[in-house]
Amino acid sequence: MKAPAHLLPVDLVRVLTVGLVIGVHTVSQEPGGTGMTSGALLTVMHVSREVFFLLTAFVLSYTYRDRPRPRWPAFWRRRYLLVGVPYLVWSAVYLVALGDAGRPGVLARALLTGTAQYHLYFLLVSMQLYLVFPLLRHLVRRTGGRHGRLLAAAVAYQIAAYAVAERLVITPNAWLISYLGFVVAGGVAAAHAETFLAWTRRHVRHVLAGAALAAAAGIAWFLAQVAWLGRTTVVASQVFQPVVVVESFAVAWAFLALGVAWEGAGAPGRRWVRAAADASFGVYLAHPLVLQALLATGLPAAAAGLPGPLVTAAAMVVVVPLIYLGCAGVAAALRRTPLSLPLTGHPRRRRPGAVALVSVSPGGLRCERQAA
Fold first, then answer.
1. Is 371's pLDDT higher than 80?
2. Are 53 and 125 contacting, i.e. CB atoms less than 8 angstroms apart?
3. DSSP character string of 114-162
4. 3 state SS of 232
5. Rounded distance, CA 1 to CA 336, Å?
6. What pLDDT, in 10s, does the model give residues 71-118?
7. Which of 169, 217, 233, 292 has the greatest number of C-beta atoms within 10 Å?
8. Shortest CA distance to 147 belongs to which of 78, 61, 213?
9. Strand partners of residue 359
């Protein structure tokens, strides 16, 4: 059966989301700590992880939606090769970079918990998603005609899960059950991808306005927690709180709306967006290492005496793009070397005319065919 068409808007969504991830990690490590400006911004940018899980489930479900039942052992072998190898390699790299590699059992514990570095939990959760993907595919197929109820249940579950996490003051980062509602919602959206994309294309302004309202609500709740509930800016901007669920769905939809609007405008800069999307997994894997190197320089000390809003603005406008571009350039260069798979999560790019491949990125799967 013919593979589904490549979804061009997803390329832009992937690029925007990786930029958001770098923004979160950069702003959260500002020398002055989390202030009012950076905390309010983090309340919105924290949705990057949820957007990733929505997008991963959506693209994965869309890719396999109309195919006959896959050979699941072969599916798992491919998925775990393309994610598991980078997970092992980068866990070791970060333990060495942090000076923890020499402690007994530290690598084994880090691999089991996704804690070798603060972003590697995503790969661990992705591998859990691949494991249960046959169940997700079966669920979406068996509930045809009742997807509205399934979607409502997924949203309700996710809000409840985040409310419990907030109440118990826990951060269950590395467990798929923490994001199960987003995964189900992504699967449902994939089942109606054509209708969903067409509706979004007709209502771009409404989707963007809804996202702006959701972001405003998130910031308002952050300010209320600090001003009225006496919470610190760190606690008030945490990931696991119900308002982030609302923001996550809204921002994910807004990114998709921007993607379809970009495609409708002729996809200007398409080549560069596709290149950035192709490098996105490598960027995701490497960016904390670059950020760690920057933090080891004199920049934090120089920024410590500046106003917090100015530091946050500089981080977003200067530091984040530089990290993204630098990591993307390195990832693109690695794609043509034997290190491509372990360091970028993609098979090595060979000469034009090679067979079609299926690759993995923080936004999920994507099919690519190198032209002859």
1. no
2. yes
3. T-SSTTTHHHHHHHHHHHHHHHHHHHHHHTTT-HHHHHHHHHHHHHHHH
4. coil
5. 30
6. 999 999 999 999 999 999 999 999 999 988 777 789 999 999 999 999
7. 233
8. 61
9. 366
Domain borders along the chain are: 8-368
**Amino acid type, 75:** F
Closest CA to 282 of 6, 131, 10, 93: 93
Supply angle C-alpha 199, 20, 230, rounded to 5: 105
pLDDT for the residue numbered 2: 60
Burial 202-231, CB ≥16 within 10 A → b, else e: eebeebbebbeebbeebbebbbebbeeeee
- Beta pairing class for 357-361 and 364-368: antiparallel
Q: How many other CB atoms are found less than 10 A from the CB of residue 185?
A: 26
Residue 356 pLDDT exceeds 60 = no
Which pTM value belongs to this model?
0.92
User: What pLDDT is attached to residue 105?
Assistant: 87
Distance CA 46, CA 232 (A): 17
DSSP 281-310: HHHHHHHHHHHHHHHTSSHHHHHTTS-HHH
DSSP, residue by residue, 177-216? GGGHHHHHHHHHHHHTHHHHHHHHHHTHHHHHHHHHHHHH
Radius of gyration in angstroms for the set of CA atoms belonging to the chain, rounded to a whole number: 20
188-227 confidence digits (pLDDT tens):
999 999 999 999 999 999 999 999 999 999 999 999 999 9
